[in-house]
Amino acid sequence: MAKAKGKAKQMKGKMKEAAGKATGDKTQEAEGRAEQMSGQTQEAAQKAADRAKRTGR
After folding, report:
1. Quick one: where's region Disordered (predicted)?
2. Which of 18, 40, 54, 56 has the fewest C-beta atoms under 10 angstroms from its C-beta?
3. Closest-CA residue to 17 (of 38, 33, 5)
């Protein structure tokens, strides 16, 4: 579930970044990139937690 939320956050960030580029809004572009990174981090953390569960750690 958290992996899906991370992917969704990445997609939202990509759209926000694209909108910022289209309108010339550098702040919105940066917010979009930050949201993408946050989503990637969330997804990676969940993958690590899933891996730890499988190995029993």
Report:
1. 1-57
2. 56
3. 33
